[in-house]
Design brief:
Elements lengths: L6 H20 L9 E5 L6 E4 L15 E4 L14 H13 L5 E5 L2 H7 L11 H4 L6 E3 L9 H11 L4 E4 L3 E6 L2 H23 L9 H12 L2 H18 L6
Parallel strand pairs: 5-6
Antiparallel strand pairs: 1-2, 1-4, 2-3, 4-7, 6-7
Amino acid sequence: METNTTVSDERQLRIDLAAAFRLFAKLGMHEAVANHFSAAVSTDGRKFLMNPKWRHFSRIKASDLVLFDLDAEDSRGRQQDVDPTAWSIHSQMHRLLPQARVVLHLHPPFVTTIASLANPEIKPIDQNTARYFNRVALDSSYSGMADSEQEGARLARLLGNRSRLMMGNHGVMIAARTVGEAFDDMYTIERACQTLVQAYSTGQPLKVLPDDVAERTAQDWEGIADFSEAHFAEMKELLNVEDPSYAH
């Protein structure tokens, strides 16, 4: 399989991924200096970018991102450059799921709240929550920090061909074809869970959408990838005005 990528492709990936870090910090969805994003720069996923260890999202620049090559002799030696849990998870995501071009892992407040319930289903009660109807894999076996490649492989198997993994008692994983699609999906799943948490907090019964309506709505979401790309492009424009240093 072809594994090459052009310098311009990698450069754009670096810029987009750095923008995502900055934007999620602005949105309050970061977790101190933890959590991690990655993006494949080769078609087989074996070369990928990831954020450096213990760097705050709000300070990450395109040039800061660490490039890994699973076939390079020094690949394991560079593990010290990133959070150990980042290596454990993302190396296996890209090794086992080459279709997962971009992988985002966060502990957003509202998603994590839903992930901590006995029933972490995102019930379809509005347009945003319906986006996730029957489209989220679940990890219900949290046993501590992901500190081994075996754990990363387990999570990759759970995600499989889906693009979202609700990580019980933990957070969420989003996989997508582009940084823009991944950004918008993470943004929307947090908004969806915020709506659901607020609805639960009223103590009143939820008005859950019928399955056919929820399914049709989810399919409609899947047909507007350009919406996700436009959302990300607009958010990058805001960054370009406020602080374009992310692209350096």
